[in-house]
Design brief:
The protein has 1 helix and no strands. The longest helix is centred in the middle third of the chain and has 32 residues, at 2-33. The N and C termini lie far apart (52 Å). The radius of gyration is 18 Å and the shape is rod-shaped. By secondary structure, the chain is an all-alpha fold. The protein has a domain at 2-29.
Length: 41
């Protein structure tokens, strides 16, 4: 039972890290494309 919980925990951690890396890469790509005319603030 403990090894199942550990496996689920590790899987969740890996999944979370992958999502964070994906969002960072997407943010960098969007930042490269935008210029001052596209900002709405």
């Amino acid at each position: 039972m403990g090894s199942l919980m550990l496996c689920l925990y590790i899987t969740f951690l890996i999944f979370t890290v992958v999502i964070i890396i994906y969002l960072i890469i997407k943010r960098i790509q969007n930042k490269g494309k935008e210029d001052f005319e596209q900002r709405d603030n």
